[in-house]
Amino acid sequence: MRITALAGGVGGARFLRGLLDHLDSRPTDPSGGPHEVTVIGNTADDVTLHGLRICPDLDTVMYTLGGGIHPEQGWGRAGETFGVADELRAYGAEPQWFTLGDRDIATHLMRTRMLGLGYPLSSVTEALCARWQPGVRLLPMSDDPIETHVVIDDPEGEPADDGTPAVKAVHFQEWWVRLHAAVPARQILAVGIEQAKPAPGVLEAIADADVVVLPPSNPVVSIGTILAVPGLRDAIRATKAPVVGVSPIIGGAPVRGMADACLTAIGVETSAAAVADLYSDFLGGWLVAPGDADSKMPEGVTLKAVPLLMSDAEATAAIARAALDLATELR
Amino acid sequence: MRITALAGGVGGARFLRGLLDHLDSRPTDPSGGPHEVTVIGNTADDVTLHGLRICPDLDTVMYTLGGGIHPEQGWGRAGETFGVADELRAYGAEPQWFTLGDRDIATHLMRTRMLGLGYPLSSVTEALCARWQPGVRLLPMSDDPIETHVVIDDPEGEPADDGTPAVKAVHFQEWWVRLHAAVPARQILAVGIEQAKPAPGVLEAIADADVVVLPPSNPVVSIGTILAVPGLRDAIRATKAPVVGVSPIIGGAPVRGMADACLTAIGVETSAAAVADLYSDFLGGWLVAPGDADSKMPEGVTLKAVPLLMSDAEATAAIARAALDLATELR
């Protein structure tokens, strides 16, 4: 069975860990074939800091599935140290709101060096995964640089003549990490996305899939941005595979992260139904939490209510199983 | 008193520490003016590893004088950790014979980033020194990239038709660190030096000096390479300041390091007198160890014998004092 999943960072990675755990418990599909999981990872929160190219979502998936993740935190490396970061601070290096661990820096050094030599991000990611053996084929959504920027009010800027407050754009990471998404996002822009192409293998992985899965990743800045890569959404609309998704919203609040701040920015309600609506042009099945069982689904979307809290490995594997079962129903 | 010193790595840095300690004990010169020390640092053992631009000699001087050096080792940072290096090894990153510490990597990240933005090495060095406050003005000998390569036998190469064994060139660091200079150097080449220009301020620091000092640095790959920067040796010949040097050789062996392997490569005997000979066109005074007091000096060079082992801070300051006293005699 060929499973293709789109994924952002922590939430997506945890779901994928559960998916692999579930698949491990049934090593072949009903027809006796092996499972092949392809993950299309979000790269729009990538950022260059201290001269290092950092791909937070790809790394979170790679570390989580490869056994290197900080388990409680959900991002960054287990057993991390901060020798480099302490020194960068002593030099007064900016920005100081993003702290890179030493172990993590080694990954960024490898990536930055390979990119500098001209390798595309997809090749770099494959090379890094050769060490981590995540058990999936991890593809960046695009080899082209795409960066999410967030337009926020600029209290120090001059208001326009008509009184409109001044705004400024900051990198998504600055809004997310430094400002904790607490400053309202006036607009969320994926800079560079119009010119971007899907990375090699991405469209094929969607077209050839037996199931396409949307884990409970951020519907705006993770799944939403992946879908905005030219050609990608069309491929999902066109695939014969059922598309099933897991709601990132439970009872009107994000399971984790600050998806509500992103949904508000694009004028969408923070609810399981509203997120399903964003995917209504291709979504076949939608898993929601029991409390959201009365969500009104877009036409043609099959709703199923199951416990959605990824509280431990078993619970997470059960969600993944429910997603695959729903896909089987739809097939 | 304006003192200009040429310097390589560990030996030069330790001597300079002693020089500053000595000057601290007499905060003004005989005429009542302040001391100003300019150090022209060797950059020909610079190397790019893991995408990081590393300047071992400049950093050794900066860390030693700025209080960050690993005191016993003489290079690298005190309290160093190796989180990044362990991970790079796990990725199989080459080369594995050069281990970078985490604290040190922060310096290289700062430097690599600034060079990437177009700042010349002299500006980068000044920026790094703004943190370390080494108490000297530290100038790279050149802003242009110069790399010492060493020609060694290549046992895996095809011999020439006439039976001449095959050779290959390796970066100086590979010969020094990986091969411990134990493989004979057929030739030592400063690649790029013909096209290089002295960094801003270098020629002026020599012309305007009251004393020019050669610490006991490697006479081939440190002092020798600095002197080979076009215009630099001529400036030392032309300066009105006395030029005094400290022999890096005591009783036929290097005080530390593997200068003998370098001297052999250029066909020069490992002796205090033979090194003085290399500098005979500008040298005014030469400090040797008591056991070398009968060294035959080139014409016009005043020899003085004093204990030369930099065994502790006091002994090192005494050597620096002897060098300045010898310069005073010559003036």
What distinguishing features does this structure have?
homodimer, 331 residues, alpha/beta, Rossmann fold, 2 domains, three-stranded antiparallel sheet, globular
Multimeric status of the protein: homodimer
Form type of chain A: globular
pLDDT averaged residue by residue of chain A: 95
Beta-strand percentage range of chain A = 15-25%
The CATH homologous superfamily of the largest domain in chain A is called CofD-like domains
Number of separate helices of chain A? 12
Order of helices and strands of chain A: EHEEEHHHHEEEHEHEHHEEEHHEEH
The CATH class name of the largest domain in chain A reads Alpha Beta
Protein name (chains A, B): LPPG:FO 2-phospho-L-lactate transferase
EC number (chains A, B): 2.7.8.28
Keywords (chains A, B): Magnesium, Transferase
Enzyme class (chains A, B): transferase
Q: How would you sum up this structure, described in words?
A:
Chains A, B: Keywords: Magnesium, Transferase. Chains A, B: It is an enzyme of class 2 (transferase). Chains A, B: Its EC number is 2.7.8.28. The structure is a homodimer. Chain A is an alpha/beta fold and about 325 residues long. The first copy, chain A, has two domains: about 1-75 and about 105-145 and about 200-330, CofD-like domains (Rossmann fold, 3-Layer(aba) Sandwich); about 145-190, no CATH class. Chain A is about 35% helix and about 20% strand. Chain A is built from twelve helices and 14 strands. The first copy, chain A, has helices at about 10-25, 55-65, 85-90, 100-115, 120-130, 170-180, 200-205, 225-230, 230-240, 260-265, 270-280, 315-330; strands at about 1-5, 35-40, 45-50, 50-55, 135-140, 145-155, 165-170, 185-190, 210-215, 245, 250, 255, 285-290, 300-305. In chain A, the strands form four sheets. Chain A has a seven-stranded parallel β-sheet. Chain A starts with a strand and ends with a helix. The interface between A and B is medium-sized, with 28 and 28 residues.
